[in-house]
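Chapter summary example: a protein plus N,N-dimethyl-L-histidine.
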Amino acid sequence: MDVLNIGPVTLYDYHPVRQDFLRDVVEGLSATPPRISSKYFYDETGSALFEQITKVPEYYLTRTELSILREHLPEMAAALGPRCVVVEPGSGSGMKTRLLLSHLVDPVAYVPVEISREYLIASALALAEEFPELEVLPVCDDYFGPWLVPEPRRPQERNVVFFPGSTIGNMQPDEARGLLASLARRCGQRCGMLIGVDLKKDPAIIAAAYNDSAGVTRAFNLNLVERLNRELGAGIPAGAFEHATNYNELLGRNESFLVATRPLTIGLGGSSFHYEAGARIMVENSYKFSLEEFAALAADAGLRVVLVWMDERQLFSVQYLTPI
Ligand code: AVI
């Protein structure tokens, strides 16, 4: 690990190995059923499309979480207490981070953990400019990687993980449990976690959120096909795949697929993959939880749900967890 001062921020660089898109895609397409990890949605185009998704009327998640934060941040800040170090897995450039930081009493440091170095540095510098009193200690690593919480200059009362957006829902339950447990381990016995968790509800509301009428989610999913062509030279003809999504009530998750519209063969990295019309490649799961289900998952990771804030319609929740 290298420590580097970049203007007002100190970067802790674990030199994460670059994701190998080709290797991961070949591995995923060789699996049964075939899949591509949803992390590959987020190139520049995909990230911009995701931003647009957060604004379509059907995608209630972001809007609802923001309204919960706006209404209850004073209580959340009281639960977290003064002199926290805020650790955020994933980028930290968003409005939610700023909202949290501006409500906390005398926060000691902010630690975004992010694999993309340029993005991490740019967002850390912007945040440091807005919060000049705050020590900003970006960590460049995969958040499943070996990173540790850097030591701030001033002593903290506790480390607090901020993980909004229901990103936890894009993980398989085992992976989610593993991540929560490893975050708790790194952040110590006195830590707290503020996590955005999407809730079970009328399946029609969920299905609409992942198939908006303006077609932004469709474009977001099909951008993955364009990435295969742009970056891996897959040569997939336009229109060969369509976006499809359904809420799987039994598994409590929304599932998104690329569906072949006609028979086709894709050549990638020396392997070839044949699809009949109607064949599906799974590209994303978005798990939804009841309060009991999430409490059970947290307990398996050694955490207790202490407080839950929800909107009036109980669409979404922000939950405060501490080690058992
Ligand atoms: C980032 N994540 C929580 C989103 C979700 O709701 O699963 C990603 C997304 N995919 C399609 N729309 C939004």
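Key point: The radius of gyration is 20 Å.
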